[in-house]
Amino acid sequence: MCVATVLVLIAALIGAGVRLLPWVLDPTLTNGTLAPFAKSLLAVAVEAAILTGWPVGWAFAVQRLVERGEARVLASLGESPLRTMARLVPQAMLFVLLLAMTSLVLGRDARAPGRVVDALVQQGRSDCASTSGNQKVARAVPFVSATWLCSTDSPRLVGRAPLGHVVFNAANAHVSDDLRRIDLDDARLLLGAPEGAAVRVHVGSLSLSGMAPWTRASSVPPFVRALVVTTSGLGTSCAVVLALLRLRRRRIGSVVAVGFGAIGPLAALGVLRALELRVPDVTPGPWLSVLVLVPVAAVSAVLATVALVASLRRKRQRRA
User: In Å, how far from its chain's centre is CA 145?
Assistant: First the structure.
């Protein structure tokens, strides 16, 4: 199980690295500037690794138990599949703890994606302020189409406002949690005007609100998300173990067993993503009940896959 989780984590980290690679190669971005977004991607990778790797590991372990004939011996001694699965309770407790903690962290970022973007802005300012000497460099800020201009004076954030063709520079900026508002400190704006004229505006503080965010914040509370993800993972793992123990008289290959373990988490992540973006921001309480479909979909995917494989094997045996 540990091996399966590590393998899935490595695959997830490779995917995260591919997404970060264009920014890593950008000379205007430092590793410190990318740290907040890298941490968010790491949380996604760890959650996917635990949620997928653990049931895959259980599936492979039970498949080997059946392959060696130990499952039949336990059954002949009167031990039911539920009793055999009860041996996994200590591991299940560790599984639930790790998955719940990771899902809480990820749920917090999903509910307030602006925190990650604001951390990118502030980290870029810190990197810019630490520039020594008379060196004049620029530090780009991902997602906000802005750049910190570093010099011996106070750093200035330069960019184009998302509302209209307005160029601005400011001493600092803060992004709201829902990405719908940007607050600028000591802002200087250049407003385009007809006939090629331009208007310059200098204000102590400026808030740009009502903007359409590039991503929608999740309306699902982090603890609810953690409960749904943990229930889905635990239900999927138990369903895989019971299904393979029930099929102990049939030969199930390692690849098929791994497929049994992976199908449930993939279904859970897909349904969760589809539902959490459709829960309304206002009074989401009654809508949270639809999240029960996530563990139901995960377990149903496992049972449907097991039934399909068993049916295909029966047909092959009849033909033979």
Answer: 23
Query: Each residue of 107-133: pLDDT tens digit?
Result: 777 777 777 778 888 888 887 777 655
Confirm if 63 and 240 have CB atoms less than 8 A apart: no
Report the C-alpha gap between 79 and 271 in whole angstroms.
Answer: 36
Q: What is the pTM assigned to this prediction?
A: 0.73
Cβ neighbours for 137, distance < 8 A, ≥ 6 positions apart = 28, 128, 131, 150
Query: So what's the pLDDT on residue 298?
Result: 92
| C-alpha separations of 52 from 11, 174, 314 in Å | 12, 36, 29
Query: Rg of the Cα trace of the chain?
Result: 26
Using the structure block, give the residue that is written with the tokens 């430092």.
Answer: 30
Mean pLDDT of residues grouped by 10 in the chain (320 residues)?
A: 86 84 73 74 86 90 84 80 85 89 80 77 79 68 77 76 72 79 84 66 79 60 87 91 79 82 90 77 69 90 86 73
Q: Where are the alpha helices (DSSP H) in the chain?
A: 2-24, 31-67, 70-76, 81-86, 89-111, 113-129, 222-246, 254-276, 293-319
Report the alpha-carbon distance of residue 62 to residue 211 in Å, rounded: 52
User: What is the C-alpha to C-alpha distance for residues 62 and 163, in angstroms, rounded to an integer?
Assistant: 58
**Residues 242/82, Cβ–Cβ less than 8 Å:** yes
How far is CA 195 from each of CA 33, 160, 192, 198, rounded to the nearest angstrom?
40, 21, 9, 9
Q: Vertex 228, ends 39 and 213: CA angle to 5°?
A: 50
Helix (H, G, I), strand (E, B) or coil at 190: strand
